[in-house]
Amino acid sequence: MSAVKSKRMPRAVREQQMMDAAVRTFGQRGYRAASMDEIAELAGVSKPLVYLYLNSKEELFTACIRRESKALVEAVQAAVEPGMPADRQLWAGLRGFFTHTAENPDGWAVLHQQASSHGEPFVSEVGALREEIVAFVTGLIGAAAREAHSDPALPDRDVAGLAQALVGAAEALAGWANVTPGVSAKEAASTLMNFSWAGLENLMHGRGWQSRED
Amino acid sequence: MSAVKSKRMPRAVREQQMMDAAVRTFGQRGYRAASMDEIAELAGVSKPLVYLYLNSKEELFTACIRRESKALVEAVQAAVEPGMPADRQLWAGLRGFFTHTAENPDGWAVLHQQASSHGEPFVSEVGALREEIVAFVTGLIGAAAREAHSDPALPDRDVAGLAQALVGAAEALAGWANVTPGVSAKEAASTLMNFSWAGLENLMHGRGWQSRED
Question: What pTM was computed for the model?
Fold first, then answer.
Protein backbone atom coordinates (compact mmCIF):
# COMPACT_ATOMS: atom_id res chain seq x y z
CA MET A 1 0.00 0.00 0.00
CA SER A 2 2.66 2.48 0.96
CA ALA A 3 4.62 1.76 -2.24
CA VAL A 4 1.54 2.51 -4.31
CA LYS A 5 0.78 5.58 -2.25
CA SER A 6 4.25 7.02 -2.73
CA LYS A 7 3.80 6.75 -6.50
CA ARG A 8 0.62 8.75 -6.36
CA MET A 9 0.85 12.31 -7.46
CA PRO A 10 -1.10 14.95 -5.62
CA ARG A 11 -4.35 15.75 -7.40
CA ALA A 12 -3.25 19.31 -8.19
CA VAL A 13 -0.10 18.09 -9.97
CA ARG A 14 -2.01 15.52 -12.00
CA GLU A 15 -4.61 18.10 -12.94
CA GLN A 16 -1.89 20.42 -14.20
CA GLN A 17 -0.50 17.59 -16.33
CA MET A 18 -3.91 16.96 -17.81
CA MET A 19 -4.34 20.64 -18.55
CA ASP A 20 -0.88 20.86 -20.12
CA ALA A 21 -1.90 18.01 -22.42
CA ALA A 22 -5.28 19.63 -23.07
CA VAL A 23 -3.85 23.06 -23.95
CA ARG A 24 -1.41 21.41 -26.34
CA THR A 25 -4.11 19.32 -27.99
CA PHE A 26 -6.74 22.08 -28.19
CA GLY A 27 -4.14 24.56 -29.44
CA GLN A 28 -2.72 22.30 -32.12
CA ARG A 29 -5.79 20.36 -33.28
CA GLY A 30 -8.60 22.75 -32.43
CA TYR A 31 -11.43 22.39 -29.93
CA ARG A 32 -13.72 20.29 -32.13
CA ALA A 33 -11.08 17.89 -33.43
CA ALA A 34 -9.38 17.32 -30.07
CA SER A 35 -10.54 14.12 -28.38
CA MET A 36 -10.52 13.26 -24.69
CA ASP A 37 -8.73 9.99 -25.63
CA GLU A 38 -5.88 11.97 -27.14
CA ILE A 39 -5.63 14.29 -24.16
CA ALA A 40 -5.64 11.39 -21.69
CA GLU A 41 -2.97 9.56 -23.67
CA LEU A 42 -0.76 12.64 -23.88
CA ALA A 43 -1.18 13.23 -20.14
CA GLY A 44 -0.37 9.55 -19.47
CA VAL A 45 -3.60 8.91 -17.59
CA SER A 46 -6.83 7.01 -18.24
CA LYS A 47 -9.76 8.76 -19.88
CA PRO A 48 -12.07 8.10 -16.89
CA LEU A 49 -9.55 9.92 -14.70
CA VAL A 50 -9.70 12.99 -16.95
CA TYR A 51 -13.49 12.96 -16.70
CA LEU A 52 -13.29 12.39 -12.93
CA TYR A 53 -11.10 15.47 -12.50
CA LEU A 54 -12.41 17.83 -15.17
CA ASN A 55 -15.98 16.54 -15.77
CA SER A 56 -16.40 17.17 -19.49
CA LYS A 57 -14.57 18.37 -22.59
CA GLU A 58 -16.34 21.71 -22.22
CA GLU A 59 -15.29 22.16 -18.60
CA LEU A 60 -11.75 21.06 -19.42
CA PHE A 61 -11.58 23.64 -22.22
CA THR A 62 -13.00 26.34 -19.93
CA ALA A 63 -10.37 25.48 -17.32
CA CYS A 64 -7.67 25.77 -20.00
CA ILE A 65 -8.94 29.21 -21.09
CA ARG A 66 -8.91 30.43 -17.48
CA ARG A 67 -5.44 29.09 -16.76
CA GLU A 68 -3.95 30.52 -19.96
CA SER A 69 -5.71 33.87 -19.45
CA LYS A 70 -4.35 34.17 -15.92
CA ALA A 71 -0.83 33.27 -17.06
CA LEU A 72 -0.91 35.86 -19.85
CA VAL A 73 -2.22 38.68 -17.67
CA GLU A 74 0.35 37.86 -14.99
CA ALA A 75 3.17 37.82 -17.54
CA VAL A 76 2.25 41.30 -18.80
CA GLN A 77 1.73 42.74 -15.32
CA ALA A 78 4.99 41.25 -14.05
CA ALA A 79 6.92 42.75 -16.97
CA VAL A 80 5.83 46.32 -16.26
CA GLU A 81 7.58 48.16 -13.45
CA PRO A 82 5.44 50.99 -12.15
CA GLY A 83 7.43 54.18 -11.82
CA MET A 84 9.41 53.77 -15.04
CA PRO A 85 8.91 56.38 -17.79
CA ALA A 86 5.81 55.73 -19.90
CA ASP A 87 7.70 54.52 -22.97
CA ARG A 88 9.76 52.07 -20.89
CA GLN A 89 6.59 50.73 -19.30
CA LEU A 90 4.95 50.22 -22.68
CA TRP A 91 8.08 48.59 -24.10
CA ALA A 92 8.36 46.27 -21.08
CA GLY A 93 4.66 45.35 -21.31
CA LEU A 94 4.92 44.58 -25.03
CA ARG A 95 8.07 42.51 -24.46
CA GLY A 96 6.26 40.60 -21.71
CA PHE A 97 3.22 40.02 -23.91
CA PHE A 98 5.03 38.85 -27.05
CA THR A 99 7.52 36.74 -25.09
CA HIS A 100 4.66 34.96 -23.37
CA THR A 101 2.66 34.36 -26.56
CA ALA A 102 5.80 33.16 -28.40
CA GLU A 103 6.76 30.78 -25.59
CA ASN A 104 3.20 29.49 -25.24
CA PRO A 105 1.93 29.22 -28.81
CA ASP A 106 -0.61 26.55 -27.90
CA GLY A 107 -1.96 28.60 -25.02
CA TRP A 108 -2.19 31.63 -27.31
CA ALA A 109 -3.96 29.60 -29.99
CA VAL A 110 -6.47 28.44 -27.35
CA LEU A 111 -7.17 32.05 -26.34
CA HIS A 112 -6.93 33.84 -29.67
CA GLN A 113 -8.41 31.31 -32.09
CA GLN A 114 -10.11 28.42 -30.34
CA ALA A 115 -11.88 30.15 -27.45
CA SER A 116 -13.25 32.93 -29.59
CA SER A 117 -14.45 30.70 -32.41
CA HIS A 118 -16.53 28.09 -30.60
CA GLY A 119 -19.44 30.07 -29.22
CA GLU A 120 -20.52 30.40 -25.61
CA PRO A 121 -19.48 30.05 -22.85
CA PHE A 122 -15.96 30.29 -24.29
CA VAL A 123 -16.42 33.62 -26.07
CA SER A 124 -17.42 35.25 -22.76
CA GLU A 125 -14.47 33.66 -20.95
CA VAL A 126 -11.97 35.10 -23.40
CA GLY A 127 -13.92 38.38 -23.46
CA ALA A 128 -13.24 38.69 -19.73
CA LEU A 129 -9.50 38.29 -20.39
CA ARG A 130 -9.64 40.96 -23.07
CA GLU A 131 -11.37 43.37 -20.72
CA GLU A 132 -8.73 42.77 -18.08
CA ILE A 133 -5.92 43.50 -20.53
CA VAL A 134 -7.71 46.57 -21.91
CA ALA A 135 -8.24 47.88 -18.35
CA PHE A 136 -4.54 47.42 -17.59
CA VAL A 137 -3.48 49.20 -20.79
CA THR A 138 -6.05 51.96 -20.19
CA GLY A 139 -4.44 52.49 -16.77
CA LEU A 140 -0.96 52.70 -18.31
CA ILE A 141 -1.95 55.18 -21.04
CA GLY A 142 -4.02 57.26 -18.61
CA ALA A 143 -1.15 57.48 -16.12
CA ALA A 144 1.30 58.41 -18.87
CA ALA A 145 -1.05 61.10 -20.18
CA ARG A 146 -1.46 62.58 -16.69
CA GLU A 147 2.32 62.58 -16.21
CA ALA A 148 2.72 64.45 -19.49
CA HIS A 149 0.36 67.17 -18.15
CA SER A 150 -1.06 67.75 -21.58
CA ASP A 151 -3.34 70.74 -21.94
CA PRO A 152 -6.13 70.08 -22.68
CA ALA A 153 -5.91 66.72 -20.88
CA LEU A 154 -6.43 63.66 -23.06
CA PRO A 155 -10.15 62.80 -22.58
CA ASP A 156 -10.95 59.46 -20.94
CA ARG A 157 -12.80 58.36 -24.04
CA ASP A 158 -9.70 58.91 -26.17
CA VAL A 159 -7.63 56.93 -23.68
CA ALA A 160 -10.19 54.10 -23.86
CA GLY A 161 -10.10 54.12 -27.67
CA LEU A 162 -6.31 54.08 -27.74
CA ALA A 163 -6.24 51.12 -25.35
CA GLN A 164 -8.62 49.25 -27.68
CA ALA A 165 -6.42 50.07 -30.66
CA LEU A 166 -3.23 48.97 -28.91
CA VAL A 167 -4.69 45.70 -27.64
CA GLY A 168 -6.24 44.94 -31.05
CA ALA A 169 -2.91 45.60 -32.74
CA ALA A 170 -1.06 43.40 -30.22
CA GLU A 171 -3.49 40.51 -30.68
CA ALA A 172 -3.22 40.65 -34.45
CA LEU A 173 0.59 40.87 -34.35
CA ALA A 174 0.93 37.97 -31.90
CA GLY A 175 -1.18 35.76 -34.13
CA TRP A 176 0.89 36.76 -37.15
CA ALA A 177 4.25 36.43 -35.36
CA ASN A 178 3.44 32.88 -34.23
CA VAL A 179 2.75 31.67 -37.77
CA THR A 180 5.48 33.67 -39.55
CA PRO A 181 8.84 31.89 -39.47
CA GLY A 182 11.64 33.86 -37.89
CA VAL A 183 9.68 36.69 -36.24
CA SER A 184 10.98 36.86 -32.66
CA ALA A 185 9.09 38.19 -29.67
CA LYS A 186 11.48 41.11 -29.54
CA GLU A 187 10.88 41.98 -33.20
CA ALA A 188 7.12 41.85 -32.75
CA ALA A 189 7.36 44.07 -29.67
CA SER A 190 9.64 46.44 -31.53
CA THR A 191 7.28 46.67 -34.52
CA LEU A 192 4.38 47.58 -32.26
CA MET A 193 6.46 49.97 -30.16
CA ASN A 194 7.61 51.81 -33.28
CA PHE A 195 4.10 51.80 -34.65
CA SER A 196 2.39 53.10 -31.53
CA TRP A 197 4.80 55.11 -29.42
CA ALA A 198 5.25 58.23 -31.54
CA GLY A 199 1.48 58.65 -31.90
CA LEU A 200 0.83 58.05 -28.22
CA GLU A 201 3.56 60.47 -27.20
CA ASN A 202 2.17 63.14 -29.53
CA LEU A 203 -1.33 62.65 -28.14
CA MET A 204 -0.07 62.89 -24.58
CA HIS A 205 1.40 66.25 -25.46
CA GLY A 206 -1.74 67.44 -27.19
CA ARG A 207 -0.37 66.98 -30.69
CA GLY A 208 -1.85 64.88 -33.43
CA TRP A 209 -2.04 64.39 -37.16
CA GLN A 210 -4.01 67.29 -38.62
CA SER A 211 -6.47 66.63 -41.38
CA ARG A 212 -6.00 69.44 -43.86
CA GLU A 213 -9.25 69.11 -45.73
CA ASP A 214 -11.97 67.66 -43.58
CA MET B 1 -52.16 35.86 -64.50
CA SER B 2 -50.58 39.04 -65.75
CA ALA B 3 -51.71 40.93 -62.58
CA VAL B 4 -50.03 38.34 -60.39
CA LYS B 5 -46.95 38.37 -62.54
CA SER B 6 -46.59 42.12 -62.36
CA LYS B 7 -46.58 41.92 -58.53
CA ARG B 8 -43.76 39.46 -58.55
CA MET B 9 -40.37 40.76 -57.66
CA PRO B 10 -37.36 39.52 -59.52
CA ARG B 11 -35.58 36.76 -57.64
CA ALA B 12 -32.47 38.87 -57.11
CA VAL B 13 -34.46 41.63 -55.41
CA ARG B 14 -36.29 39.21 -53.15
CA GLU B 15 -33.03 37.50 -52.26
CA GLN B 16 -31.53 40.83 -51.25
CA GLN B 17 -34.55 41.50 -49.02
CA MET B 18 -34.11 38.13 -47.35
CA MET B 19 -30.44 38.81 -46.81
CA ASP B 20 -31.15 42.28 -45.41
CA ALA B 21 -33.47 40.63 -42.90
CA ALA B 22 -30.93 37.89 -42.20
CA VAL B 23 -28.02 40.29 -41.59
CA ARG B 24 -30.18 42.30 -39.21
CA THR B 25 -31.35 39.22 -37.33
CA PHE B 26 -27.94 37.51 -37.17
CA GLY B 27 -26.26 40.76 -36.18
CA GLN B 28 -28.70 41.64 -33.43
CA ARG B 29 -29.64 38.24 -32.01
CA GLY B 30 -26.60 36.15 -32.88
CA TYR B 31 -26.23 33.20 -35.23
CA ARG B 32 -27.50 30.54 -32.82
CA ALA B 33 -30.48 32.47 -31.50
CA ALA B 34 -31.65 33.73 -34.90
CA SER B 35 -34.47 31.61 -36.35
CA MET B 36 -35.47 31.17 -39.95
CA ASP B 37 -39.05 32.01 -38.91
CA GLU B 38 -37.92 35.39 -37.64
CA ILE B 39 -35.90 36.10 -40.77
CA ALA B 40 -38.77 35.13 -43.06
CA GLU B 41 -41.21 37.29 -41.10
CA LEU B 42 -38.89 40.28 -41.17
CA ALA B 43 -38.39 39.83 -44.91
CA GLY B 44 -42.15 39.51 -45.41
CA VAL B 45 -41.91 36.13 -47.12
CA SER B 46 -42.76 32.55 -46.20
CA LYS B 47 -40.18 30.34 -44.53
CA PRO B 48 -40.28 27.75 -47.37
CA LEU B 49 -39.37 30.54 -49.78
CA VAL B 50 -36.28 31.42 -47.71
CA TYR B 51 -35.24 27.75 -47.80
CA LEU B 52 -36.02 27.57 -51.50
CA TYR B 53 -33.72 30.51 -52.25
CA LEU B 54 -30.96 30.09 -49.64
CA ASN B 55 -31.15 26.35 -48.82
CA SER B 56 -30.26 26.34 -45.12
CA LYS B 57 -29.50 28.60 -42.18
CA GLU B 58 -25.82 27.82 -42.66
CA GLU B 59 -25.86 28.76 -46.35
CA LEU B 60 -27.88 31.88 -45.63
CA PHE B 61 -25.33 32.93 -43.00
CA THR B 62 -22.45 32.20 -45.38
CA ALA B 63 -24.14 34.31 -48.06
CA CYS B 64 -24.51 37.15 -45.51
CA ILE B 65 -20.81 36.97 -44.59
CA ARG B 66 -19.81 37.12 -48.26
CA ARG B 67 -22.10 40.03 -49.05
CA GLU B 68 -21.05 42.05 -46.01
CA SER B 69 -17.35 41.29 -46.65
CA LYS B 70 -17.60 42.45 -50.22
CA ALA B 71 -19.42 45.65 -49.21
CA LEU B 72 -16.79 46.45 -46.57
CA VAL B 73 -13.82 45.87 -48.87
CA GLU B 74 -15.46 47.95 -51.61
CA ALA B 75 -16.19 50.79 -49.18
CA VAL B 76 -12.54 50.95 -48.09
CA GLN B 77 -11.18 50.67 -51.62
CA ALA B 78 -13.59 53.29 -52.95
CA ALA B 79 -12.58 55.73 -50.21
CA VAL B 80 -8.88 55.64 -51.09
CA GLU B 81 -7.73 57.69 -54.06
CA PRO B 82 -4.47 56.36 -55.43
CA GLY B 83 -2.01 59.15 -56.03
CA MET B 84 -2.82 61.14 -52.91
CA PRO B 85 -0.09 61.56 -50.30
CA ALA B 86 0.28 58.53 -47.99
CA ASP B 87 -1.29 60.18 -44.95
CA ARG B 88 -4.31 61.34 -46.96
CA GLN B 89 -4.75 57.82 -48.33
CA LEU B 90 -4.62 56.31 -44.87
CA TRP B 91 -7.02 58.93 -43.49
CA ALA B 92 -9.45 58.36 -46.38
CA GLY B 93 -9.26 54.58 -45.93
CA LEU B 94 -9.90 54.84 -42.20
CA ARG B 95 -12.80 57.23 -42.78
CA GLY B 96 -14.24 54.80 -45.31
CA PHE B 97 -13.82 51.85 -42.96
CA PHE B 98 -15.31 53.43 -39.84
CA THR B 99 -18.13 55.11 -41.77
CA HIS B 100 -19.10 51.77 -43.26
CA THR B 101 -18.96 49.86 -39.95
CA ALA B 102 -20.93 52.64 -38.19
CA GLU B 103 -23.59 52.72 -40.90
CA ASN B 104 -23.83 48.93 -41.02
CA PRO B 105 -23.58 47.86 -37.38
CA ASP B 106 -25.44 44.60 -38.01
CA GLY B 107 -23.20 43.71 -40.93
CA TRP B 108 -20.13 44.49 -38.85
CA ALA B 109 -21.47 42.38 -35.94
CA VAL B 110 -21.98 39.51 -38.41
CA LEU B 111 -18.37 39.80 -39.60
CA HIS B 112 -16.57 40.74 -36.40
CA GLN B 113 -18.46 38.74 -33.76
CA GLN B 114 -20.83 36.20 -35.26
CA ALA B 115 -18.79 34.80 -38.15
CA SER B 116 -15.63 34.41 -36.10
CA SER B 117 -17.32 32.81 -33.10
CA HIS B 118 -19.29 29.97 -34.68
CA GLY B 119 -16.64 27.65 -36.02
CA GLU B 120 -16.17 26.51 -39.60
CA PRO B 121 -16.91 27.23 -42.38
CA PHE B 122 -17.63 30.78 -41.13
CA VAL B 123 -14.24 31.37 -39.54
CA SER B 124 -12.55 30.68 -42.88
CA GLU B 125 -15.00 32.94 -44.73
CA VAL B 126 -14.21 35.87 -42.49
CA GLY B 127 -10.51 34.95 -42.52
CA ALA B 128 -10.56 35.46 -46.30
CA LEU B 129 -11.99 38.96 -45.79
CA ARG B 130 -9.29 39.75 -43.25
CA GLU B 131 -6.59 38.63 -45.68
CA GLU B 132 -8.02 40.83 -48.40
CA ILE B 133 -8.03 43.88 -46.12
CA VAL B 134 -4.51 43.10 -44.85
CA ALA B 135 -3.27 42.76 -48.44
CA PHE B 136 -4.80 46.12 -49.36
CA VAL B 137 -3.26 47.85 -46.31
CA THR B 138 0.08 46.14 -46.97
CA GLY B 139 -0.01 47.61 -50.46
CA LEU B 140 -0.74 51.10 -49.10
CA ILE B 141 2.04 51.02 -46.49
CA GLY B 142 4.52 49.49 -48.93
CA ALA B 143 3.80 52.14 -51.56
CA ALA B 144 4.10 54.92 -48.98
CA ALA B 145 7.41 53.52 -47.75
CA ARG B 146 8.79 53.32 -51.29
CA GLU B 147 7.70 56.91 -51.93
CA ALA B 148 9.51 58.03 -48.79
CA HIS B 149 12.73 56.47 -50.17
CA SER B 150 13.83 55.47 -46.71
CA ASP B 151 17.36 54.17 -46.44
CA PRO B 152 17.55 51.35 -45.53
CA ALA B 153 14.21 50.53 -47.13
CA LEU B 154 11.53 49.27 -44.77
CA PRO B 155 11.76 45.45 -45.02
CA ASP B 156 8.72 43.62 -46.43
CA ARG B 157 8.34 41.72 -43.18
CA ASP B 158 8.04 44.97 -41.23
CA VAL B 159 5.45 46.23 -43.71
CA ALA B 160 3.49 42.99 -43.24
CA GLY B 161 3.66 43.32 -39.45
CA LEU B 162 2.54 46.94 -39.56
CA ALA B 163 -0.42 46.03 -41.76
CA GLN B 164 -1.43 43.36 -39.23
CA ALA B 165 -1.15 45.88 -36.39
CA LEU B 166 -3.18 48.51 -38.22
CA VAL B 167 -5.95 46.11 -39.23
CA GLY B 168 -6.10 44.61 -35.71
CA ALA B 169 -6.34 48.10 -34.22
CA ALA B 170 -9.08 49.10 -36.68
CA GLU B 171 -11.13 45.97 -35.95
CA ALA B 172 -10.91 46.49 -32.20
CA LEU B 173 -11.79 50.19 -32.49
CA ALA B 174 -14.77 49.56 -34.77
CA GLY B 175 -16.18 47.03 -32.31
CA TRP B 176 -15.68 49.48 -29.46
CA ALA B 177 -17.05 52.50 -31.37
CA ASN B 178 -20.26 50.64 -32.26
CA VAL B 179 -21.06 49.85 -28.61
CA THR B 180 -19.85 53.13 -27.08
CA PRO B 181 -22.52 55.85 -27.20
CA GLY B 182 -21.52 58.98 -29.00
CA VAL B 183 -18.33 57.82 -30.76
CA SER B 184 -18.69 58.90 -34.37
CA ALA B 185 -17.01 57.30 -37.37
CA LYS B 186 -14.88 60.41 -37.77
CA GLU B 187 -13.73 60.29 -34.15
CA ALA B 188 -12.81 56.62 -34.42
CA ALA B 189 -10.89 57.30 -37.64
CA SER B 190 -9.19 60.27 -36.01
CA THR B 191 -8.15 58.24 -32.95
CA LEU B 192 -6.56 55.59 -35.13
CA MET B 193 -4.96 58.14 -37.46
CA ASN B 194 -3.37 59.96 -34.52
CA PHE B 195 -2.35 56.66 -32.98
CA SER B 196 -0.75 55.21 -36.08
CA TRP B 197 0.40 57.95 -38.43
CA ALA B 198 3.34 59.41 -36.50
CA GLY B 199 4.85 55.95 -36.01
CA LEU B 200 4.29 54.93 -39.62
CA GLU B 201 5.79 58.18 -40.88
CA ASN B 202 8.84 57.74 -38.67
CA LEU B 203 9.32 54.17 -39.88
CA MET B 204 9.03 55.24 -43.51
CA HIS B 205 11.86 57.65 -42.88
CA GLY B 206 13.98 55.09 -41.09
CA ARG B 207 13.30 56.48 -37.65
CA GLY B 208 11.81 54.63 -34.71
CA TRP B 209 11.60 54.51 -30.98
CA GLN B 210 15.00 53.54 -29.62
CA SER B 211 15.21 51.15 -26.73
CA ARG B 212 17.86 52.56 -24.44
CA GLU B 213 18.58 49.44 -22.44
CA ASP B 214 17.84 46.28 -24.35
Answer: 0.88
Interface of A with B in 126-185 (CB under 8 A): 157-158, 160-162, 164-173, 175-177, 180, 183
The identity of residue A44, as a single letter, is G
Tell me which residue of A167, A197, A188, A13 sits closest to A103, measured CA to CA: A188
Dihedral-angle region of residue A30 (phi above 0 means left; psi in -120 to 50 means alpha; beta otherwise): left
Each residue's pLDDT tens digit, A113-131: 898 888 888 889 989 999 9
CATH of B3-204, one of 2.60.120.10, 1.10.3210.10, 1.10.357.10, 3.40.50.1240: 1.10.357.10
Specify whether the CB–CB gap between B34 and B25 falls below 8 A: yes
Domain coordinates in residue numbering, chain B: 3-204
Q: What whole-number percentage of chain A has pLDDT above 70? A: 93
Residues 6+ away with beta carbon under 8 Å from B213: A88
The confidence score (pLDDT) of residue B155 equals: 83
What does each C-alpha distance from A15 to A21, A33, A99, B49, B65 come to in angstroms?
Answer: 10, 21, 25, 52, 40
Class for the domain spanning A65-204: mainly alpha
Best of A194, A205, A213, A214 to disrupt the B interface by mutation (most B CBs within 10 Å)? A194
In tens, the pLDDT along A33-72 reads: 999 999 999 999 999 999 999 899 999 999 999 999 999 9
CB neighbour class for B52 (10 Å; exposed up to 12, middle 13-18, buried from 19): exposed
